[in-house]
Amino acid sequence: MKPPGKxxxxxxxxxxxxxTDGLRSFSHRARTRQLGYLxxxxxxxxxxxxxxxxxxxxxxxxxxRDRAQAVKRGVWQAGxxxxxxxxxxxxxxxxKPTPMLYRNLLAMETEELLRSYPVDGxxxxxxxxxxxxxxxxxxxxxxxxxxxxxxGPMLPGHWRGETLGSGTDMWKYWDDRRAGVIGDxxxxxxxxxLARSPGHCMTMGTASTxxxxxxxxxxxxxxxxxxxxxxxxxxxxxxxxxxxxxELVHKGRKLSDVLTAEAFQDAVTxxxxxxxxxxxxxxxxxxxxxxxxxxxxDDFDRVARxxxxxxxxxxxxxxxxxEDFHFAGGLPGFLSRIPDLLRLERPTVCHDxxxxxxxxxxxxxxxVIRPRGNPVxxxxxxAVLRGNLCPDGAVIKHIAAAPHLLRHTGPAVVFDDYRQMxxxxxxxxxxxxxxxxxxxxxxxxxxxxxxxxxGMLPLPEHLLKQGVRDMxxxxxxxxxxxxxxTCVLHIAPESYVGGPLALVRxxxxxxxxxxxxxxxxxxxxxxxxxxRARWTPPPVRHERGYGALYHDQITQADTGCDxxxxxxxxxxxxxxxx
Length: 578
Ligand code: FES
Description:
With about 575 residues, this protein is an alpha/beta fold. The protein has 22 helices and 14 strands. It has three domains: about 45-155 and about 195-360, no CATH class; about 155-195, no CATH class; about 385-535, Glucose Oxidase, domain 1. Helix content is about 35%, strand content about 10%. It starts with 14 loop residues before the first helix and ends in an 11-residue tail after the last helix. FE2/S2 (inorganic) cluster (FES) binds next to loops.
C-alpha cells in the first residue's frame, strides 16, 4: 500500500533501473551495494540527482561542495535518495573567450545526464551568470521535476570606508587608474577588497538578475535568490530544496508545469522592475523556448513601459547591494509591491499558487525596495531598439546610461574586432571625441564567438583624463550585468553574418533615440547596397570540435542563442522505455 500523496515504488522512473526482475536491475542493485548503500536506504525511494557546478576555479560556486550536503540532508529527511553529479562549471571570471560559448554545452550535459541515469527529480546548483539558464534549459528539456538552488551573492566589498560592488567598482576604479586618479598602491588594496567571500557578484548583475528570475519563475524555494552565499540561511534553504524535490516527485509536478507562459511574463516583469541585466533578455528567451513558450524582444519592450524600477541596487540603482536587498525583504518583498502586475494563480515548486507563495511578504526598507510612488526609474530598465542598423533588434540598459546621451547623433569610429579595438582605442590618430559613437563588430554569437561581454567598450585615455565618463557605444556583443554606460548591445543580425553593422564605416553618422526606440545609420539605402555587394564574410572561427558545432547551430541574440537542434520541439525517447 502506498501512503496517500506518495508514488508507489513502481510509479517512479528509477524503478526501471532498480526494481524490475531482470539482469539489468540485478546489476544496478549490486552496483549500488558497491557504492555502500543498504537496500532499505534507497529501494523504492525517489532518486534525486544533485547537479553541482562546484569547482576550485569558480569563486562564485566554491561553497557549493559543502552546500550539496545540506541538499542531501533535506532529500534524506523527506524520504528520497540523493546522488550528487559534478557537471561543468561556467566561471564568468576565468573562462575565455566567454562562458556564453559553453552555456548550451552545460544545458546539453544537464539534459542528457538526467535522461540517461535513474533520476526521478533534480536539484540544480548554480548561480554564476550562464549556469542558471544552462541548468534550467537542460532540465526543462529533460522533462523531470527540478528545483534550482541559487549560489547566493557574495558579501559586499570594502575599501577605505567605501562599499564596493562586484564588477561595477572594478570598471570604475580601472578607469580612475587609466585617468591617473589612483595608482598601483590603491589597486593592490582594491584587489583584496572587491570580492571577500564565496558567492556570485553581489550587484544586480547578470547572476543576481537571473537567480531572481528563477525565483520569479517559481523554481526556487521562496526568498532563496538573495540569501548571501555564506549566511547560515543558505544552508537551510538548500535543505528545504532537498525536501521540496522529493515532494515534487511524489506530486508529479514537472519543471515544465511550472515554466508556463505566465511564469515567463512574470520573470520579464521582475527583471525589468529590478533594473536587471540585459543578459536576461537572451537567457529568458532561450529558457522560454525550451519550455515551449514564445517569448520575444517585443514582450520585454512592452512590459518595460509598464513596470517601474523599484530595486535601488547597483548598477541600475544608485546605492545598495544584494545583501541590503535581502534584508529589505528580498524577492518576495519586491513581488509584494507589484501583485497587480503578476499572474498569481500559477504554480511554483513550493506552492500551488504564486499568491500563496508571496502571502505575508513585506518590504522592510523603502529606500532599498522603493514604493511604486517613488521608483528608481519610472520605466523598466531595458529598452529594445529597432532601425536600419538592427532590423532584428538591439537592447540598451538606459537606466545605467548618461541621460544626455539617450538622444544622440555622432560620427562612428569603427573597430573590426575586439583585439583591434584594444590595440588602437588610445591612438590619437583616430581623433575620437566625446561625441563619437564607438562601434565594435564581429563580437556577436558567431563572430565573437560566443558573444563575449565586450559591449562596454573602454573610453580613450585622453577623454578619461578630461573627465569624460560615458559615450555612445554600439556592438553585437553583450555587456556584463555589472557594467554601465550608454551601450547598445545584442545588435541582430550580427555583423559576422552580414548584418548592417558590417557595413558601417568610420565617419558615418549614427543616431540613437531611446525614447523613440530607434537606432539609425544615416547612410542611404543605395550606398548601403553598394557596400553590401563588396562585403565578404570573415573566416570561420572554429573548423573542428565543439566550436564547429557551435558555429553551425547557434541562433542570433533575438532568439536566445540556443542551438537550432536543441530549441526545436520534438520527442526524445526516454531510455528506460526501451
Ligand atoms: Fe560569477 Fe559575477 S563572476 S557571478
